[in-house]
User: Fold this.
Amino acid sequence: MRERSRDLGFRLGTGAFALVLVVIVCGIGFVLVQQSMPSIRKFGFDFWRTETWNPVIGDFGALPFIWGTLYSSILALILATPIAIGIAVFISELCPDVLRQPLVFLTELLAAIPSIVYGLWGVFVMVPWVRTLETSLPDSVRQWSLFTGPPLGLGMLSAAMILAVMIIPFTSSVSREVLKSVPAAQREGAYALGATRYEAIRAALFYARTGIVGAIMLGFGRALGETMAVTMVIGNNPKMAISLFAPQYTMAAVVANEFSEASDALHLSALTEIGLVLFIITLVINSLSRLLIWSMSGRTTIVEEPATPLAAESAA
Assistant:
């Protein structure tokens, strides 16, 4: 009886700690909705659809910031994912033992660098490089809508490249740990069937695909909420454009830039609603990624090992 009461107390205690996370998330959502009500009442869903952002006349629309956030994050994900998975495969499968620990340390060191340092590196290195790239393009290419824009170096491409560098260590570290957890029997079975090393690594990647997708989505979530580094290199222009060289804006950047200088209550409420929009988009994307991971896990086929002759005789 005493042991049962202790077990029940332990379960209730750990359950309460887990419930704290739910309460925190609900509390954040409640506060954001409450502080955004003036903007929600005035603009409604037009806040999500309009492109005007003019604090002087009190007209606010978040579409340029939603576009800039999703565009920069998806572009960074496209750039970073092959590199991150390549790093994880090399370190876990191909790297000599002498180099493995130094490479792991350097990868994790990249994740620990503050965002403002990445931003400074972007301003002094990445922005001039992008400016040189843009000015070196032929005039015929610069007429395309994807490559138009002033030759400043501040724009979507700079922001996406900074984000890609920042999310690589997160995605590669988690992917490496997932690949380390793949049972050795998977690779040994592939070699036993005559597979090459490349084919054995492909088999390991297929086995670990669910965890790798989770690692990619972790990097995507990191890119969505990044603030300082992106603010320093994206140009901060609230205009939608498909061009890689056009200055644009993100939700996190506009909140960081204007929150302390909000001119009136409606401006402050509009900025808070942008935080609410970012909160909702993050929840939706993480929920969709979780559903994707669950669906991939559900399709995993587990083959039961045949009984050994000794086990068969014991069962008989």
Notes: Residues 2-43 form the longest helix (42 residues).
